[in-house]
């Protein structure tokens, strides 16, 4: 009978907390959003299930929990804490991303830069709310609207906030279709939203091959802190565009990225143990996160309007919102907002340019933050 | 009977009981959900009608996006045939998911070649 | 010339033992069974070749052997010693297993519980034969008839017995078609073996999605020690059944599980060095293993007969034998035994229910053993 | 000639000899097996006839299992066409292997979709 | 402003060296050869991009460089320094290599042995040029004309020379079509080059299954140091030839080898930091490397001529050159040189025999060197 | 205004500037390459004619190798249909690459089944 009591003690009944219970509900909400609502399922499902795994009440000492050294989860979590899952995901993303929309109209790249203002304004906000610089930097990257970048930077700068930052970043990325349209409409006139842009010219194969090499050298020279992200992104893209290494690119964008995605999502979710996650800091991070997305969207749209002052061929300022990255959701949002005014205005291909530029922009931003506070 | 044999007998009884209880609860939970499912399925039927209307609406958006792709075919890199194939494969889902499926990591595009391997 | 002698000394001739020779023959038998007899080739071929690799006579100090720190084999073996290969295999198994046969007839799950009596009776037997509790627990899990579970538990509880336990478990799993039929026939009457069961009702998509989530929560709350196995099993199954993460499930059940299977099989085989494997303990383990399989089969069949006392729609007691797991071999054995009495009695689909329930059951059993002796 | 050069010459001779001897033994072993194969192939021919009869027998079992699948199609999830395709792909093996192939880890089912990727 | 200066200090401008600049150009040349010239693109593209990554001027202390402990690149580089990437590549190579050309005509295997003279003569040369024995051994393996073998052995014997050895080996492997033809023509008469060889007999399935097992046992007994390479090569080949483990072989020769190839190429490239790579030793290594390829080719051709003295069915001595390995480039070179004399002389299938034998031969050579100096 | 707020303002300005400058340089570089491309494309057109002649030449070699494969079909393991399929898939490349593609690790063959998965 004693044995039985010991066993119960080791299990859920002996270690139950209401915090864990709350987090189990959060996990179920993630699963619901991913499965029933189809919001970013490839991330919300692994993270959601991971939250369940991480909040099972356990006696420590059984080598099961993700924070116990030597446990299986802690070993798989090393890819997050040591920071090598995100670069490998960027490798796969590079091998699946087609930058030609951006190469066809390079001035739209600047919109992807403008939207990164969200990163740095959120940094200021976090400092104002009392976070340390290195924590504020990790929180600011939520404004980059890019999951792997956020996980990579916070694993380096503020590992104790990683769970909250990752969950916040992915939550808002899933909510992009809710957050962006009102901001876009507020900042643009109907006339602006009706602007039609010319289809771009085709892009030569040579340019597509040279781009990852040159863009890598430029970003690595200016912001070497971004090397771990952009080095892998552009490497993956070169594998794809060079055509001669297609089998490597194919594996990078299928089996390889899938394996890392499964492990990253599950362990990031499992790291959101209630005792670490349910803190006042997490609430502040969620507030700052929504600020970050709003500011980033606004900065992109406003910068597009500023560019229009100087340009002959006007840009439809809606596509400035796509600069936040959150590929391809925000580009799709731009298409929809544009189509509400004129169903024959096909903005999505133009919006892809600031969209992918935003990925590069937020990785550079991460490099700057890493160089300063790493 | 030695101490250790007594312990192991006790332990075996408790162990097999825990396995049994766990699986019995799972079995019961499944039975419960199956019961509930009948109610849900009725509820679903109503919902489906609503969904159908909604789908119509979203479908239009999708159509626009597809036409956008056609319009920009000038870029020379987008083939409509592939888009259609992608839709058929996932036809049991709402059109939104068709696009959602093309997404990895909430923040990145998936090339058209994704499913060709 | 001296150089040459040194070289010879480092090699096979200088280190040859008859134990190694015996193990090389065992390895060849495994390869023969896998390739020529087609018994479990996906495991017997890697393990068999691994046995060859592990029993090449070597001077130590060359950093080649699996027990020398820093050698390639020892690094690849870490997935076994640290216990993370088996959960990743369970992930893939979850992503390929269809639980609907079980969901369609949930009362058959209990048969999968009954057969786990083999685990705990073998535990008693091992204690009687003089093993320590933690060793007896690792040996008992052979009765679970599940390779990854056996490897996971013995890596945690009795690493020094891992080779013998794994080889014993896989040997008997390959011999299921030989072991089970006489036991089934002994315990059932012809009339019982002729019982026809009704086809089950279809299972809704919603139930298939909810099942892995709910089953995970139940098992993790009751037996948290099973989390590393069942967490990954149900996670993989959710990736499969949710439909929205099909690309992740596809990778988990192909490239990912294949990679882990190759590494697990090879290194488990290579760990059966003669000096560690050819011991009196191994012989006892083999005897206990056969006991475990026999008891498990009998327990499943007898429990089915007990259930029939209370049920209106009688269960064919043959399918109780499928509760041992050894998926899908033992379900197939049930089909064959049934067909010998009545070729039109299609038991296989009914037998799959206790069969997959047995996988869950033995993982729960492993969790109980881990909680008690881990 | 310095010590080290002498050593390296000696070593080179021994090294290349070992490579040579190893590959020569492999070459000889292959030659040996090829010789033996002729005998085996004859033996095989006889065996094949036996095997053919056996196969007939096992085939019946397989047929039963397939029919079982048909019978339980009521479950709505099992398509006979797939089962047939699986058999054709592996037709050089005995029917038992057709099922064996569907197994991974001696203890777990492989879904029908396994080979579809 | 101070912040800005700090940032600049951390980046390229503060750490620029002409050595790095030179290496960036080397990287671009590799990319050019791989992409535009289609020379060994699956290796030159990853290595070339890796050279760019490894020569970005960085302040140390940011945990980015491959030689800083804990950086992402240093973690991924562990597969090279700990030596487990090359065996896994050999696994995939085994699963894609068809040895039947060699099995059909086993006497041609000896040509693959003769060409390994390049390894040992280069060893002597390196000792003469003042290298230590263990360094000379690592340099000698360039004569094996096999990338993974060279990386494996130099990671064990002379890690500080790994970059130079790898770059040298791959450079000459890419230049095989330039190096070999003049040597072949110099050593053979027109009459010899016109020799036609009989088509070989078919190979039974049984022989193809037995071969990897027997060849593994022979090589492991004689040269256990080759076990890490040949164990995995023959294991992969058994997975392929046994037919019953086709799904494992398929993964080994696609997703698995691709993943390792990406990581190996990138990190080997990134390890060629200018300060380590641009040394007088590297120049000596390049000179010895060209010697190695030349000697290996000559040894193969001359040995073929010696064999012809004793054989009734003469061998075309051109195919002796294929014994260097460099699969399948050197076999293709033989075909071309032969076709220049007689367009209807199809040597390629015969040349494949010494070609794959050369892979085994150089791995045995590596085992000998490892046993002696490891 | 506190010290830390001042710092964070300064830092934010510098940070966003660096992002901007980086992307602006990339944007400019792309624009530059696009300009250069026009010249290159002209140059290319001339080159292509040369290449065409060369290709003819190399094609012959390839043909020989393919015929070699046919000739050794006696080995019973080489199917011409596959060789042809491999060529079509890569038809945008020079024939050399057709063979080069079949190579992994500069030193090893890729079986014919490579692309079948
Ligand atoms: Na961004
Ligand atoms: Na079981
Ligand atoms: Na070689």
What is the fold's blueprint, element by element?
The complex is a heterohexamer, with three copies of chain A (374 residues) and three copies of chain B (117 residues).
Chain A: H1 2-10, H2 12-15, H3 18-35, H4 41-54, H5 72-81, H6 85-96, H7 100-103, H8 109-114, H9 117-128, H10 133-140, H11 147-157, H12 162-174, H13 176-187, H14 190-193, H15 205-222, H16 227-241, H17 246-270, H18 274-277, H19 280-310, H20 329-341, H21 348-373
Chain B: H1 3-71, H2 80-89, H3 95-100, E1 103-104, E2 108-109
The structure holds sodium ion (NA) (3 copies).
One sodium ion binds next to helix 21 of chain A.
Give an account of the 3D structure.
The complex is a heterohexamer, with three copies of chain A (374 residues) and three copies of chain B (117 residues). Chain A contains 21 helices and no strands. By secondary structure, chain A is mainly alpha-helical. Chain A has one domain (2-373). Chain A is globular. Chain B is mainly alpha-helical and 117 residues long. Chain B has helices at residues 3-71, 80-89, 95-100; strands spanning 103-104, 108-109. In chain B, strand 1 and strand 2 (108-109) form a beta hairpin. The interface between B and C is large, with 35 and 41 residues. The complex binds sodium ion (3 copies).
Give me the Rg of chain A, rounded.
21 Å
Q: What structural class results from the helix and strand content of chain A?
A: mainly alpha
Beginning-to-end CA distance, first to last residue of chain A: 54 Å
Shape field of chain B: rod-shaped
Mean pLDDT score of chain A, rounded?
91
- Which pair has the most extensive contact? A-B, 53 and 37 residues
The percent range for helix content of chain B is: over 70%
